[in-house]
Design brief:
alpha/beta, seven-stranded parallel β-sheet, three-stranded parallel β-sheet, 15 helices
Length: 414
């Protein structure tokens, strides 16, 4: 499989260089046309708002989640009386990580190629006054709590749904069978896609697929099929269970299925990594485990269940509370070296903790558990403490705190 990773990297690099060269040539050829477009739009902007939104095309998580939140926020603003205007959407790079997702986006919004807009953009920056409004590329943090009060913007055609269902039947799922997507971050994808970069500073976010096996087996006992997702992964998911499909490893992966499975799963189990932007955008429930840094807990949807990585002191392996994590200065740390410098080690969630998390999510979806007043009070205190601990720096990352934290771990984390 390492050989496959190497060929993936080589193909990715060559295709990316060729696309850039081709795009550069097209940009040069169309410079006069883009100057005319700029002049026309700047004149039009005196009468009607002209906006530009950027789609982050190289990374699937940002491509899905950032676009969904930026576009949904624009629709909500317009529904509340905001000026409609004209919005032009532009890919952030020539490379598109998932062509099918891009296809769904283009059904909803007007997208122009980057090479046909980049000169317009640069001219807009150079000349002040009456400018085209640059919306940027948005964020994948739902600080306005849009997910729980809006519907997905992207839609599948009937033929695409039939195609997806046909695939499910071909791998053994009965009609109407429930399935879960599992995505576990390791170092393989970024190392393969961007071999020129050193990604070791992000190793604190990785976890081992082995620790998820008990949870996967429990899901199948509860009637779910499980798809292990990913483009390039370290190794196989070692189970003989016929209800577990190692989609990331067995060669059946396609760009279409990445999106179809993420959009139609009963829920997703994720380590807060790229693929979960797809179920996120389609409002699917998500169990986030092994989240780090702790400031990034996905707090803004009632459909989310959360569990951070365990922080322990290196010298005695004593577990840190949230307050101790904040005082140690690592609540916002995004580099492995920062944790080591503070004398802290991040431990992966145990197989038992992950097992409990998926079991609790299933129970919540099926309404077989309810929170007692004591448990609700405990969660409220948890979020109040969390908000106060992060302070002003954390406000830009969170809206209303409506997600659940794994019940069995709240008291040990406060």
């Amino acid at each position: 499989y390492r050989t496959n990773s190497v060929s993936f990297a080589q193909k990715y690099f060559v295709v990316r260089i060729l696309r850039r060269l081709f795009a550069l040539a097209l940009t040069i050829v169309t410079v006069p046309f883009q100057i005319v477009v700029f002049i026309v739009l700047r004149i039009a902007s005196k009468v009607i708002p002209i906006r530009c939104g950027w789609i982050i095309t190289p990374r699937i998580g940002h491509m899905a989640a950032n676009f969904e939140l930026l576009y949904t926020n624009l629709l909500v603003t317009q529904a509340q009386g905001g000026k409609r205007g004209i919005t032009i959407w532009v890919p952030s790079q020539e490379h598109v990580c998932n062509r099918f997702l891009f296809k769904l986006i283009k059904r909803q919004v007007f997208v122009v190629p980057r090479w046909l807009w980049i000169v317009v953009h640069q001219l807009n920056l150079m000349f002040p006054g009456g400018s085209i409004i640059d919306l940027g590329s948005g964020t994948d943090r739902d600080v306005s709590n849009l997910l729980d009060r809006t519907s997905p913007s992207l839609e599948f055609s009937n033929s695409e749904i039939r195609k997806g269902n046909k695939f499910l039947e071909s791998v053994g799922l009965p009609k109407g069978a429930r399935f879960v997507c599992l995505t576990v971050r390791d170092s393989s994808y970024l190392a393969s896609a961007y071999p020129q970069n050193d990604w070791s500073y992000h190793d604190y976010r990785n976890s081992s697929i082995i620790n998820y096996i008990p949870a996967v087996e429990e899901l199948t006992r509860r009637g779910y099929f499980v798809f292990r997702m990913g483009a390039v992964v370290d190794g196989p998911l070692l189970t003989q269970n016929p209800m577990v499909i190692d989609y990331a490893f067995n060669g059946m992966r396609t760009e279409f299925l990445d999106i179809f499975l993420g959009a139609h799963c009963s829920f997703c189990v994720s380590t807060a990594t790229g693929f979960d932007g797809v179920p996120f955008s389609f409002r699917r429930p998500i169990v986030y485990v092994n989240v780090a840094p702790i400031c990034y807990l996905q707090t803004y949807s009632i459909k989310f269940l959360l569990l951070a990585k365990t922080h322990v002191w290196l010298h005695d392996k004593t577990k840190l509370t949230f307050d101790e994590i904040v005082k140690a200065g690592v609540a916002f740390s995004s580099n492995s070296s920062e944790f080591l410098k503070a004398g802290i080690q991040l431990l992966e969630n145990t197989p038992e903790q992950i097992y409990q998390a998926v079991a609790e999510m299933d129970d919540r979806i099926n309404n077989t558990i309810s929170d007692s007043p004591t448990q609700n009070d405990q969660l409220d205190r948890f979020w109040q403490n969390y908000r106060m601990g992060l302070g002003f720096q954390g406000e830009k990352l969170h809206g209303d705190f409506v997600a659940k934290y794994l019940r069995s771990e709240i008291s040990a984390t406060i």
